[in-house]
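User: Working on a comparison across species. This one is Glycosyltransferase from Flammeovirga yaeyamensis. Can you predict its structure so I can line it up against the others?
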Amino acid sequence: MRIAILSTFYPFRGGIAQYGNALFTALEQLGHNVKAFTFTRQYPNFLFPGSTQYVTDKDTTEQLQSEEVLDSINPITYYTTAKSIEKFAPDLVITQYWMSFFGPSLGTVAKLLKDKYKVISILHNVIPHESRVIDKPFTSYFLKQHHGFITMSASVDQDLKAFIPNASSLERPHPLYNHFGAIADKEASRKELGLQEDKKTLLFFGFIREYKGIDLLIQAFDELDDSYQLVIAGEVYGSFDVYQQLIDQNKNKDRIHCFNQYISDQEVSTYFSAADVCVLPYKSATQSGVTAVALHFELPIIATDVGGLKELVIPGKTGEIIYKAESKLIAKTIIEYFDKDTSEYSSNIKALKQEMSWDNFAKKLVNFSNTLPTPEVL
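Assistant: Here's the predicted structure for Glycosyltransferase from Flammeovirga yaeyamensis:
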């Protein structure tokens, strides 16, 4: 099968680019002829809250070859992108959707292609975490241009059906990343990060945004005794000042270790290998790529009961669920987790890894696309 993927790819960085790269590789390894199409400009710089959109010299990201064609804010490129994809003559076109800002650009390209080729989208989010006035019209426009959807959680599937009740969809959780390397030695990893080697180590990992509840985790850490240490690793979107104030007021502030920076791929193993548990104190969510990274490193997860997080965080098996996003409940769940025999969590996660492989995900995606009618009969 000839498959075109229109998404963020190298030289852009971040979770969506990593996802696209892993999907490309998995489909190619199954014997498909795959071509990647990406942006010439993803976001205007003034709309991007992080330090840079691009891979830097510190990153060791695989330099996957893609055709840079789409400017998110230049409508002329919507048409030239569709023409470029037409030249490839795909049997299947795959887009990724994670933010309503991309509704007009990705949606228009899909609209121009859908009468000739099967067009499906992988939906990371339908309803964004931080709402804007553009969300409903842009998302509605985008969704209407596709024949089918891969939804990353039950909550995403429900959001899709709120827009298109009879939408053809396949619900598949986020596959486990496998490009971050092997699990490293815990003692050596803690030493490399300047952590105490004998503490129960909590990890918050990923971009720091308001909905992810890092403020709740910092407040919860104030409830814990001196046998714990907290690692916060990730680049903040916006200002870190409000979190720094909470840290400064925390009685355990000397055991809060902040790495407020973009964590390159080659550094990821050190952070997850140093931790005893990954904590996701999200106030809202659909799903999270961080769960896929944690499970790759066989690290149990403590997460709030929001969105699709509990689909992979199985209480007593792969982690624990906090039934409400409140600091005292987060602290209580952390304490209860460490009071248990945690040795079985890793073995349960190992059993999950094959089911959650990229190879399995790619096979199911292709099988799903084969069930969709060809454009001639739509």
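For your comparison, note: Residues 6 and 325 are 35 Å apart (CA to CA).

User: Helpful, thanks.
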